[in-house]
Specification:
The complex is a heterodimer of chains A (114) and B (169). Chain A is mainly alpha-helical and 114 residues long. Chain A has a domain of 75 residues: Arc Repressor Mutant, subunit A. Chain A is built from five helices and two strands. Chain A has a two-stranded antiparallel sheet with strand order 1-2. Chain B has 169 residues and is mostly helical. The N and C termini of chain B lie far apart (119 Å). At the A-B interface, helix 3 of A face helix 2 of B.
Chain lengths: 114, 169
């Protein structure tokens, strides 16, 4: 598999899918979590589009949940992160941590790594 | 429709099912309906504007139906049709088809054999330095009335010919 790039919104959404409990990571819930935890308001369509791309890249996999009365009897598409997705997330974090550690103290000014 | 109805506008469903792939339609409409319920406190006009905005925002490449004639570069069905029709045409007159195909393949085969034979013939003994001046001495014998020709001559003949004819090197 070719090396896949992880976009900024993609990374956020991937992290949120990891964070959300099993059987609860679907389009609208991810949007809600984005608003709550990352202060980002995006359209539902944007969430679906991103999650679709993540699935195409092999970072998440999806299945249809059971039908409920809630949404007119329609099923939800539920997402879980694959091992590949987790590895990509870790790599992305490692890159950023190592960059932060290489910045000299003076150059940071008021910024400090906690 | 009552102002606090949780039934989203039907036009949206029609609109999206007209434009979106059927395999993603269910999850999209489900999420939209849930979103509509989230908006219960908003005034009705705002609610439907938000709802429409979110619905129109789903018109992205992943959700849209493919325009078949525009996107399709799949030529295999066409070639399959060609093979099938030509095979059926051949089977309509099996005998003449057989004669045609057999004759043509025999002709091509013979041509190939002739070509290979000639190529071999022209390639023999090309390595001699004075190949334009080299001749093969043949030897004719009268064997009890029938004349026979051989490409073999006794070895001392070379020395004798060189002595007798000065232009032979």
């Amino acid at each position: 598999m070719a090396k896949q790039h992880l976009g900024e919104l993609e990374e956020l959404i991937l992290l949120l899918i990891v964070m959300l409990e099993e059987e609860s990571a679907y389009g609208l819930a991810i949007r809600r979590a984005l608003k709550e935890h990352a202060a980002r308001t995006v359209t539902i369509g944007a969430v679906h589009g991103t999650v679709n791309r993540l699935e195409k890249k092999g970072f998440v996999k999806s299945y249809l949940g059971g039908a409920t009365d809630e949404r007119g009897g329609r099923r939800k598409r539920l997402f879980t992160v694959t091992a590949h997705g987790k590895r990509v997330l870790q790599q992305s974090r490692d890159v950023k941590v190592s960059l932060w550690q290489q910045i000299p103290e003076l150059a940071l000014g008021n910024l400090r790594m906690t | 429709m009552s102002p606090k109805s949780n039934q989203p506008p039907k036009q949206v469903e029609q609109f999206l099912s007209w434009l979106c792939k059927p395999e993603v339609l269910e999850e999209i409409l489900g999420d939209l309906e849930e979103y509509y319920i989230e908006l219960t406190e908003k005034p009705r006009w705002q609610r439907s504007i938000f709802y429409w905005f979110q619905a129109v925002n789903f018109l992205r490449p992943f959700a849209l139906k493919k325009i078949a004639s525009y996107y399709s570069f799949n030529h295999t069905p066409m070639f399959r049709n060609y093979y099938k029709t030509s095979f059926r045409n051949l089977m309509r007159n099996p005998l003449s088809s057989f004669i045609n195909i057999f004759g043509l393949s025999t002709a091509i085969g013979v041509c190939l054999v002739v070509y290979a034979f000639l190529k071999y013939d022209y390639s023999v003994d090309r390595f001699h330095e004075f190949k334009d001046e080299v001749y093969l001495i043949t030897f004719s014998a009268d064997r009890s009335g029938t004349e026979e020709r051989y490409g073999l001559t006794p070895r001392p003949l070379g020395d004798i010919l060189r002595q007798d004819f000065t232009y032979i090197k």
